[in-house]
């Protein structure tokens, strides 16, 4: 067929942060893009794709998306895992991009068409103290956001997840709220930054922040909070209860994600809506959580959960239990991955909310998107396929820059979840 895969290439670029992109080209020259970025472990996926996947793609019909997915998943024998699933995700996204371009349609049309006019997006507001936080919330409201994630510094702790070190210092938009750039260490040798954590200080402080935010900004504004996997089930239940008066949209990742029984305990003790899943890479990670209704939102990123094919199945599975989506959209998901989210968000009946961190100007010069942001909602645009193009010359200007996510320690030096 003319839709046979002629070539596939891995593109690694670092316009401010690292991105891994797979580009697939068919015999008649249709090009598809897929995001394969795994923050802090990027080259593992690049090598997996280049050495183990690309040799299998040549000559396959790009139209056979489900069969290719199963071939790469079952065919590897070694199932799941973030590296494997990010590689499969990239192939899957690129093939959907190609199929939609062949059909001359924006991708959402192949996923069922529009269910809404745009995807409600939430932005990240943060501040080291209440004043900075309020400024950040106001700034995002002025930009047009209608749902806000709230993260703050904790008295006694130097740096806390979700709070940009540079917030309020006049850093440029795009970097300013980039609270977790995987950083280079001193002397240019990449090493994780180490942070210090104190759960009791955090649990004491957070309810007072939400009290202040509600009294300043009123009852209507949807507010979210991310606990980033740091709490035991009992601590998470305590936090959930203490936040109940502030009517959160969700409390995210309150316990380490690999233990579904932790959420059973949390669920039994608080009515706060729960979201989880950004570190999951398979529907199977969610099976107990969904069938026992232990969560309200599934948080996977298309890039880390096997692509559009697998994420669509996850969303449909969740829908049967009245559970909604809230796909993971930090800046380490590239504009290609975020485009895939926006097409799904537009089409899925059980869409909940879409996380949105603005990519830097340098990133948007490499990845040219057709996204629209209006009335607090994101729209993927009407270009054919995913609607993202990569500027290869711009990409080449940004060489790979090894970097790690931070590591957390308790006051006595014990490594804690970050
Ligand atoms: C979020 C996430 C991110 C992750 C990041 C790690 O809710 O957006 O928690 O902030 O920490 O994606 O690479
Ligand atoms: Mg999170």
Automatic annotation (TrEMBL):
Give me the stretches of Basic and acidic residues compositional bias.
173-183
Which Pfam family, any one, appears in the UniProt record? Answer: MR_MLE_N
Say which domain of life the source belongs to.
Bacteria
Mandelate racemase/muconate lactonizing enzyme C-terminal domain sequence ranges: 130-273
Alphabetical list of InterPro entries matching this protein:
D-mannonate_dehydratase-like (IPR034589), DgoD-like (IPR034593), Enolase-like_C_sf (IPR036849), Enolase-like_N (IPR029017), Enolase_C-like (IPR029065), Mandel_Rmase/mucon_lact_enz_CS (IPR018110), Mandelate_racemase_C (IPR013342), Mandelate_racemase_N_dom (IPR013341)
Q: Where is this region: Disordered?
A: 170-191
Write down the PANTHER family for this protein, in alphabetical order: D-GALACTONATE DEHYDRATASE-RELATED, STARVATION-SENSING PROTEIN RSPA
Q: What's this protein's name?
A: D-galactonate dehydratase family protein
What is the organism of origin for this protein?
Demequina muriae
């Amino acid at each position: 067929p003319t839709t046979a895969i002629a070539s596939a290439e891995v593109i690694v670029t670092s316009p401010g942060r690292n991105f891994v992109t797979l580009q697939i080209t068919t015999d008649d020259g249709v090009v598809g893009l897929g995001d394969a970025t795994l923050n802090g472990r990027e080259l593992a996926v690049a090598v997996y794709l280049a050495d183990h996947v690309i040799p299998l793609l040549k000559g396959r019909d790009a139209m056979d998306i489900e069969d290719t997915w199963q071939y790469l998943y079952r065919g590897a024998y070694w199932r799941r895992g973030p590296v494997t699933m990010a590689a499969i995700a990239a192939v899957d996204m690129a093939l959907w991009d190609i199929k939609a371009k062949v059909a001359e349609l924006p991708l959402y049309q192949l996923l069922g068409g529009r269910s809404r006019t745009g995807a409600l997006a939430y932005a990240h507001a943060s501040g080291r103290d209440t004043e900075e936080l309020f400024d950040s919330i106001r700034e995002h409201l002025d930009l047009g956001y209608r749902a806000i994630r709230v993260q703050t510094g904790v008295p006694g702790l130097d740096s806390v997840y979700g709070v940009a070190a540079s917030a309020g210092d006049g850093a440029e938009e795009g970097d300013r709220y980039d609270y977790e750039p995987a950083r280079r260490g001193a002397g240019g040798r990449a090493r994780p930054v180490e942070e210090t954590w104190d759960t009791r200080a955090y649990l004491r402080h957070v309810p007072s922040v939400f009290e202040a935010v509600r009294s300043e900004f009123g009852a209507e504004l949807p507010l979210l909070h991310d606990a980033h996997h740091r709490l035991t089930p009992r601590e998470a239940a305590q936090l959930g209860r203490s936040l109940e008066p502030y009517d959160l949209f969700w409390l995210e990742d309150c316990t380490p994600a690999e233990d579904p029984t932790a959420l059973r305990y949390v669920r039994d003790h608080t009515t706060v809506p729960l979201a989880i899943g950004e570190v999951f890479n398979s529907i199977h990670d969610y099976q107990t959580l969904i069938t026992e209704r232990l969560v309200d939102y599934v948080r996977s990123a298309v890039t880390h959960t096997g692509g559009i094919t697998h994420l669509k199945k996850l969303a449909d599975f969740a829908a049967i239990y009245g559970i909604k989506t809230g796909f993971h959209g930090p800046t380490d998901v590239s504009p290609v991955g975020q485009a895939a989210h926006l097409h799904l968000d537009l089409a899925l009946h059980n869409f909940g909310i879409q996380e949105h961190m603005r990519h830097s100007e340098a990133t948007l010069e490499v990845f040219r998107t057709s996204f629209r942001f209006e009335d607090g909602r994101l729209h993927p645009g009407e270009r054919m396929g995913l609607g993202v193009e990569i500027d290869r010359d711009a990409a080449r200007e940004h060489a790979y820059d090894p970097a790690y996510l931070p590591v957390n320690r308790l006051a006595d030096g014990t490594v804690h979840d970050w």
